[in-house]
C-alpha cells in the first residue's frame, strides 16, 4: 500500500471514530444536539468564547457523564485491539487475544476476592485488585514457562497461560460459591461495563494505555520481521525472546489496566485485528494503528447498543461484543480466512 493510500485509510478511519464518539455522546434522553456538543467543545478551547446553547444541566451531563464514558470506551477498545494484534504477531497465532496468558482469569480472581472479602464496601477496591491479579497471573505464566522448556518458545508460554488461567478460574469459582450473596456484583463486573464516576477512571488508566500502545506501535517493523520466524529474525539481528518479552509485557500492562476499570470485555482483541487484516493485509505498520482506531470505534458503538437495547436498563457490554464478535469470527473461520 502506498504512503498516500495509507494516509487516506487512517484519516478515513479517524473520521469514523469521531462520528462514533459523537453518537456515543448524543444518544440518550438528555436532548443534546450535534451542534450544541461541538460548540461546547470548541468553547473549552483557549481564547475561544462561543455560546453552545446547552443548559447547565446538559453541560454537566456532557462533561461529567457522557464524555468520560465515551473517552473510556475509546481507551479500552483501542488498548484491547492493539494488544490483540501484538499478541497475534508475537506468537504467530491467529487465535491469540489480550487474555491469552491469564490476564482475564487473574483479573477476575482479584475482582472476585475484593468483592467477596469486602462485600459492597470492597467494590471500590476492585480496580486495584483486578489490576494486581492480572499482572500476577501473567508473571506466574512466564515463571512457569521458564521452568518448562526455558521459556524459549511461544507454544510453551501459551500452554503455561492455559494452566495458570485454569487454576485462577478454579480458585475464583471456589470463592464465588463460598460467598454466593455477592454473585450478582461479581457477574456484573465479569460481563463488562463502562459506567464511570467522572474522569477518575480515565485518569487512572491513561498513563498505562499511552505507554502500552506507544511501545507496541514502535515495534511495528519488528513484528513484520518476526512473522517469518525466530531463526530468520535472529539472522537479521533481532532477539525474538527479548522482543516477545517486551511486547507481551507492555500489552499485558495496558490490558490489565483497562480491564481493571471495565471488567472483562471479550472478542475486541481477537475480532478487530482480524477484520482489519482482511481489509489492509498483515503489515503491522498499518495494521496496528488501524486496529487502534477501529477497536476504539467498535467499543464506543457497542456501548451505545448496551445502553439502548434494553433502555432504561443497561445490558452488559461484554454481551454485546460477544453477540457481534462470535458470529463474525465463526464466519471468518468458516471461510478459511483466519491468517497469522
Automatic annotation (TrEMBL):
Its main location: membrane. The chain crosses the membrane at residues 70-87, 99-117, 123-144, 156-175, 245-274, 286-309, 315-333. It is found in: Cell membrane. Gene3D superfamilies: ABC transporter involved in vitamin B12 uptake, BtuC (1.10.3470.10). Keywords: Cell membrane, Membrane, Transmembrane, Transmembrane helix, Transport. InterPro entries: ABC_BtuC-like (IPR037294), ABC_transptr_permease_BtuC (IPR000522). This is FecCD family ABC transporter permease. It comes from Rhodococcus gannanensis.
Amino acid at each position: 500500500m502506498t504512503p498516500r493510500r495509507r494516509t487516506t485509510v487512517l484519516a478515513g478511519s479517524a473520521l469514523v471514530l469521531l462520528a462514533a464518539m459523537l453518537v456515543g455522546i448524543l444518544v440518550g434522553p438528555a436532548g443534546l444536539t450535534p451542534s450544541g456538543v461541538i460548540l461546547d467543545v470548541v468553547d473549552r478551547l483557549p481564547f475561544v468564547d462561543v455560546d453552545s446553547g446547552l443548559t447547565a444541566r446538559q453541560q454537566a451531563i456532557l462533561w461529567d457523564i457522557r464524555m468520560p464514558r465515551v473517552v473510556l470506551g475509546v481507551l479500552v477498545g483501542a488498548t484491547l485491539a492493539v494488544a490483540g494484534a501484538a499478541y497475534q504477531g508475537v506468537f504467530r497465532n491467529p487465535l491469540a487475544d489480550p487474555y491469552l496468558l491469564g490476564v482475564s482469569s487473574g483479573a477476575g480472581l482479584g475482582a472476585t476476592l475484593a468483592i467477596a472479602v469486602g462485600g459492597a464496601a470492597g467494590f471500590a477496591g476492585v480496580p486495584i485488585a483486578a489490576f494486581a491479579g492480572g499482572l500476577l497471573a501473567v508473571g506466574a505464566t512466564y515463571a512457569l514457562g521458564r521452568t518448562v522448556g526455558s521459556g524459549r518458545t511461544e507454544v510453551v508460554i501459551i500452554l503455561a497461560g492455559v494452566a495458570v488461567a485454569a487454576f485462577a478460574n478454579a480458585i475464583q469459582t471456589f470463592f464465588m460459591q463460598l460467598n454466593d450473596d455477592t454473585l450478582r456484583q461479581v457477574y456484573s463486573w465479569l460481563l463488562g461495563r463502562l459506567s464511570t464516576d467522572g474522569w477518575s477512571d480515565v485518569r487512572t488508566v491513561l498513563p498505562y494505555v499511552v505507554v502500552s500502545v506507544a511501545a507496541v506501535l514502535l515495534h511495528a517493523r519488528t513484528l513484520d520481521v518476526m512473522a517469518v520466524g525466530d531463526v530468520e529474525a535472529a539472522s537479521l539481528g533481532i532477539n525474538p525472546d527479548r522482543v516477545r518479552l517486551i511486547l507481551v509485557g507492555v500489552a499485558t500492562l495496558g490490558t490489565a489496566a483497562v480491564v481493571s476499570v471495565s471488567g472483562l470485555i471479550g472478542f475486541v482483541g481477537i475480532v478487530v485485528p482480524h477484520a482489519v487484516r482482511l481489509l489492509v493485509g498483515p503489515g503491522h505498520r498499518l495494521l496496528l494503528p488501524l486496529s487502534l482506531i477501529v477497536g476504539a470505534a467498535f467499543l464506543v458503538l457497542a456501548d451505545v447498543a448496551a445502553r439502548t437495547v434494553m433502555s432504561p436498563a443497561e445490558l452488559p457490554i461484554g454481551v454485546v461484543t460477544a453477540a457481534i464478535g462470535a458470529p463474525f469470527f465463526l464466519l471468518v473461520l468458516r471461510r478459511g480466512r483466519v491468517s497469522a
